[in-house]
Structures are given as structure tokens and as C-alpha cells.
Design goal:
The protein has 651 residues and is α+β, with helices and mostly antiparallel strands. Helices cover 48% and strands 12% of the residues. Helix 3 packs parallel to helix 5, helix 8 packs antiparallel against helix 9 and helix 11 packs parallel to helix 12. The longest helix has 33 residues. The radius of gyration is 35 Å and the shape is elongated.
Length: 651
């Protein structure tokens, strides 16, 4: 029933006895004959009441000289097993029960409860006790909730413990058999069948080994088999021990690939109270398995507590698993619950997970799906919102969308758009203004392939939290649709298109040349020459002489190193490329290729640059400042940071 009908199991079991009696009546079978045939439990042959103080007389009949020490010696392995099981029961079965019931356990409370229970039982001469996993699962699936229902179960259990032997003679044996069969099948399906896709081959082999050993040799042998399986898994997954957290830092000194944000967006990101300092980056490392997953969780929560004490509560938390070698399934479930703890306990807007690989996290468990946010996974009570993603058209100069031949053979269209659509926005055209924007809740979690993508998404969240319209304008400036249509050359562009290109070029120059007045912008613009390129055109090749810099006005380009597979960077409208080679006189360090249908570049030649430097050094200095800013940004770019190792520090 998968939880759809929570009352079905208890109703089913309650109906077994009356249905059995009705069947006897319908078939004309006498109850005494059914009892003689063994359909009922045998009655207790005693004239005393169900509860008698004479039960305590057993403690007066103990004589050490009558003890069979041979039997005691044979019972030692069993006693050791019971002791070991009682010690490991809480740290193993409680998390397993929490996963089965989708609850967050409090291990301290569970240990205290077991301690009190066994203490009271020992005082009154009882046996050791612990939570029964199977009964607990049935209770949970029957929608048992709250203290009242729990106390009712306790009272009923106590009543049955005392008067059960008298009542069981009226209960048919088939009820016990049905209960055992149902629980056995249910637990087998949950533990062996349904877990097949959640564990890797080594972990699942351990489950099969424990199941077979327990069936054939009992609990003692199964505990040994489980111990061996756990050691084997640990040995394979973790050769050397490392702390699961490499380090943590705020993102104040980190920069993403979103080079040309608007001035308003930059102001927010540089603000100490609203900007990148409110992003906490936590980098994990090594093998994360059942032995250190709890350390990972506790360490992350301790970091957040420290940040809260210092008054620097993060708005966004980035958990970077790029340097994690492997994650076992139980640890993946712990990480899934860690996300909920961060959001509920610390009020973090978004938790971003960096898997570090195209195929997702390095574990068999589908952790990417479990921790990825969405409409059904939004943070309750959130008043901060992002705008809805736009539907990016086929002609938009985004990533590698418009080329007929894919630049990345292994990259799908969905993957190429992932980082862009996270920032793209849609505002209702019926009424302009912030209040009428089409809003959608910020997801409480997000999964990115790289730390750069995660930082871009985090920056967008920070901007949207302050003012979603600033993010709208920022995206509009960075990701414009193609202005040119048809197949005409640049010299054949209509006056309207030329006017639009000129306005955009001037707007980009104004944004790039901070502090420049209109006359200075005009002077730089007059030195630029428009150039038109088509998809797959090579603007320059790695090793060519540097004879110009270019301002991208329309279209998208790809800068790539020819001798390093995978080393590439996308260039979008509003960016200047080739400035380092022009100013420093070095040869081209990368190959620049057009990846949109068309691209319009405004070029500043070396001759005109040298003329500008001689005639108006003040205006020429704006180009120098752009180059310095770009170099500074690259030095602080997150891909160039060994976050917690030796590196060149930003100055």
C-alpha cells in the first residue's frame, strides 16, 4: 500500500480472530475440536492468578552449589553477543529506523530512554530491553503519532504481558503466523529488495551475506558477518583516514565567471552585510562513509553555530564535494538529512551542493535527485523569491546553443543551459514594475557540477534576496538575444540594427569604463571598428600575434586551449577579449571561436590604441583599468583557488 492506507494493517490483524471464529461457525467445526486439532494455543495449567507475588520466590531458590557451570560456560558467547548487541543497537537501529520512517532522530534522547528503561527493568529483576525495530516500523506505518498513542501502546503491552497467557488460548495460532509472515516479508522487501538500487555492489553483498548467515546460523553468526562486512567496506572505501571537511571560508575573496555584472549587482555583492561574505563555502574531502558521516554532519552544524555566535549567519551555504572520492549509501542519506537540518535550524535561504562531476555524486545512491530543490522542495515560510526562468530560444547566444556542430561532444543541451537558466528571469509585460513580476520561490537547495556554477547561483540568490529586479536587469544585460537576423553582412545591416548595435556598444563601454564621461566614451567608441563573424569562425588562433582587442556586442564565443582537453571558457556580450595581448605585446594564449549563429565584435587595433595612448593617456587608462580588473578577477576566480592550501593570496 506504500503508506496510502495506514490503518489497513491494524484493521487486518484485528479481523483475523473474528473471521477465524466465523469460519469455524460457518463450517460447523466445534471450538473444542479445533483446540484439540491445535488451532489454538494450549491453555496454562495453573490455578493461580495471572500475576502473583510468588513469582519473586525464584530469587530465594538460587544456590550457587546447584549451578551448572558447564551450562554457564556454554552460555558465555550468547551473553557476550547480547551485551554487544545492546551496545550497538541504538547507534545502528535507531538511524535505520529513522530512515525507514523519514524522521530526524535525537541520539541523546534515544540513549537516555534506553538507559532509564534498562535501569528500571534491572531494579525489578527484569531482562534487558530495547526498541523493537519491526514493531516500531509497523507502529509508524499505522500512522502512530504523539505521546498519547505511544502511552496507549505501553499500557496495552503491559496488560498483555500480565494477562496475555490467559487470553492467548482464545487467539488462533494463524494470527501469530500471519503477523510473523507479514513482518518478515515487509522487512525483507525493505531491506533486501528495495535497497538493491540504493547501494553499490560491495555494500549490497554485505546485506546478502548478513541475510543468509542470519537465516542459516542465527543472530550471533550474523553479528560476526556484519562486522566482517563493515570492515571490508571500510577497507575498500577508505585506505587512509581523513577528516571529511577540508576547510570552510566565506566567499568574500572568491569570484565566479559572471564577469560583467551590473553596477547595482556588484554593489550588493561587495556589501559586507548583504554580499559574498554571507556565502559560506565548506569543502569536503576523502571517503565519506558510515564511520565519519556523523563527524561531517556535526562539524558542519558546529561551523554554522560559530557563524551565528559571531553574527555572520550565512544566507547561502555551499557544500563542495569535488574532492570527495566516494560516498557510501548510508552517508548519502545522512547528507540528505543534513540539508534539512541546515535550513530548519539556521534559516539558510539555499544550500548548494557541488558534486564535481558530470555524472553527479560519486555514490550509487541517487543523492543528486534527493537533495536537489524545486517547487516541491521549497523552504517553508520563505519570503525571498527569484523570478521564473525564461524559455531560452534557439537563437539565443547562450553557451553552445546555436551551433549546429556541438562544441562539447559529451555535453547535452540541458547541461549547457543549466547555469544560465538558473539566472534567467521572466517579468510580466502586462504591468511593468517590481510588484507585478512573475515570482517563484527560491528553491531551498540546488545541485551544481562545479564550484564556479555554485558561486554564480549563490551570487544570483544574494542579488534576488535584495531586489529581484536588479537580477532581472543584470541578466538582460549579460544574456541578450541576437540582434542580427537573416544572412546579411555587417555593411548591409539596416539602420535600425546599426543603431541598436551602436547603443549597446556605448552602453557596454559605459559599464566597463567606470567614471568615464560621455565625451570619453565617444572617443573610445570612435576608435572601434565593427566586425561580423559566423558560427565556427576563428577570430584568432593560439600563438597568433596580438594586434587588437575586441568588445563583444552580440553573439557568443569560446576561448579554448588547444593543448589541454576541456580547458575552455565562454565569452558573452559585454566582455572585452584580447586586452592582455594588446597591452602586454604577448602572443594569443588561446584560440577564440564563434559558437553562436552570428557575432558582432567591435575591434580596437594596435595602431589606434597606440595613437590613443599618445594623444589622450587619460582615456587610454580606462583600457588599462579594464585589463587590471580582469586580471584581478581571474586571480580571485574560484577555479584558480586551492581554497585551503598554499596559494597566491589576493592583494
Amino acid at each position: 500500500t506504500k503508506g496510502k492506507y495506514s490503518l489497513l494493517p491494524p484493521v487486518f490483524y484485528c479481523l483475523i480472530t473474528p473471521v477465524f471464529y466465523f469460519s469455524l461457525y460457518a463450517l460447523g467445526v466445534d471450538i473444542d475440536d479445533a483446540e484439540d486439532a491445535g488451532y489454538f494455543f494450549p491453555p496454562i495449567k495453573s490455578t493461580e492468578s495471572a500475576f502473583s507475588w510468588s513469582l519473586l520466590d525464584i530469587f530465594t531458590e538460587i544456590h550457587f552449589w546447584n549451578i551448572s557451570w558447564k551450562a554457564v560456560f556454554k552460555a558465555i558467547p550468547t551473553m557476550i553477543s547480547l551485551t554487544a548487541f545492546s551496545l550497538i543497537h541504538v547507534p545502528i537501529n535507531i538511524p535505520a529506523f529513522a530512515i525507514s520512517t523519514n524522521t530526524e532522530p535525537d541520539m541523546n534522547a534515544e540513549l537516555i530512554a534506553h538507559g532509564y528503561s534498562n535501569f528500571i527493568s534491572g531494579i525489578f529483576g527484569g531482562l534487558q530491553n530495547y526498541m523493537t525495530y519491526s514493531n516500531g516500523v509497523i507502529y509508524s506505518k499505522s500512522n502512530g503519532r504523539g505521546k498519547c498513542s505511544s502511552l496507549a501502546i505501553v499500557a496495552l503491552t503491559g496488560f498483555i504481558f500480565i494477562y496475555g497467557p490467559l487470553l492467548c488460548v482464545y487467539v488462533p495460532r494463524c494470527m501469530a503466523g500471519t503477523l510473523l509472515l507479514h513482518v518478515g516479508i515487509d522487512l525483507f522487501i525493505e531491506g533486501v529488495v528495495e535497497s538493491y538500487h540504493d547501494y553499490d555492489s560491495l555494500e549490497y553483498s554485505g546485506i546478502i551475506l548478513i541475510t543468509i548467515t542470519m537465516t542459516l546460523a542465527g543472530m550471533d553468526a550474523a553479528l560476526v558477518a556484519g562486522f566482517i562486512a563493515a570492515l571490508s567496506t571500510y577497507a575498500v572505501q577508505s585506505i587512509t583516514y581523513q577528516h571529511p571537511i577540508k576547510g570552510a571560508m566565506c566567499a568574500a575573496t572568491l569570484r565566479s565567471s559572471a564577469w560583467n555584472r551590473s553596477a547595482e549587482a556588484q554593489k550588493i555583492l561587495l556589501d559586507k552585510k548583504k554580499g559574498r561574505e554571507r556565502i559560506l563555502v565548506i569543502q569536503c574531502q576523502g571517503h565519506i562513509f558510515f564511520g565519519n558521516s556523523t563527524i561531517l554532519k556535526e562539524s558542519v552544524l558546529e561551523l554554522l553555530v560559530e557563524r551565528r555566535r559571531s553574527g555572520d549567519d550565512p544566507i547561502v551555504v555551499i557544500l563542495d564535494f569535488t574532492h570527495v572520492l566516494a560516498i557510501d549509501s548510508s552517508s548519502a542519506m545522512t547528507i540528505e538529512k543534513l540539508k534539512d537540518s541546515i535550513i530548519k535550524s539556521f534559516g539558510v535561504e539555499v544550500v548548494i551542493f557541488v558534486c564535481g562531476h558530470e555524472d553527479g555524486f560519486r555514490c550509487h545512491y541517487d543523492l543528486s535527485l534527493k537533495v536537489n530543490g524545486g517547487a516541491a522542495n521549497k523552504r517553508e515560510g520563505s519570503s525571498k523569491r527569484l523570478l521564473d526562468p525564461i524559455d531560452i530560444g534557439e537563437e539565443d547566444p547562450i553557451m553552445f546553443e546555436t551551433c549546429k556542430e556541438p562544441i562539447h561532444p559529451n555535453s547535452s543541451r540541458a547541461q549547457a543551459r543549466a547555469s544560465v537558466t538558473a539566472r534567467a528571469l521572466d517579468v510580466s509585460n502586462s504591468h511593468s514594475g517590481y510588484k507585478n513580476a512573475v515570482m517563484a520561490d527560491i528553491p531551498n537547495s540546488h545541485v551544481c557540477e562545479t564550484l564556479d556554477d555554485a558561486l554564480i547561483f549563490a551570487e544570483d540568490v544574494l542579488v534576488a534576496v535584495q531586489d529581484a529586479m536588479i537580477l532581472q536587469n543584470d541578466v538582460d544585460d549579460r544574456f541578450r538575444s541576437n540582434i542580427l537576423e537573416g544572412s546579411g553582412m555587417a555593411v548591409k545591416c539596416s539602420k535600425t540594427q546599426q543603431s541598436s548595435l551602436e547603443e549597446i556598444a556605448r552602453a557596454f563601454l559605459t559599464s566597463l569604463c567606470t567614471g568615464a564621461n560621455a565625451n570619453e566614451i565617444d572617443k573610445i567608441y570612435c576608435l572601434l571598428e565593427p566586425e561580423l563573424y559566423y558560427c565556427n569562425d576563428i577570430v584568432w588562433t593560439q600563438g597568433d600575434e596580438s594586434k587588437s582587442l575586441k568588445l563583444i556586442v552580440d553573439g557568443s564565443l569560446l576561448s579554448l586551449l588547444e593543448d589541454e582537453d576541456g580547458a575552455r571558457e565562454s565569452c558573452y556580450p559585454g566582455s572585452i577579449v584580447g586586452e592582455l595581448g594588446l597591452l602586454n605585446g604577448t602572443r594569443r594564449l588561446t584560440t577564440l571561436k564563434v559558437i553562436s549563429d552570428k557575432a558582432v565584435l567591435y575591434s580596437l587595433s594596435q595602431e589606434r590604441w597606440e595613437l590613443l595612448a599618445c594623444e589622450d593617456p587619460k582615456v587610454a587608462r580606462f583600457i588599462d583599468v579594464i585589463a587590471i580588473r580582469y586580471l584581478s578577477h581571474r586571480i580571485q576566480h574560484v577555479s584558480n583557488h586551492n581554497l585551503f592550501g598554499k596559494r597566491s593570496l589576493p592583494v
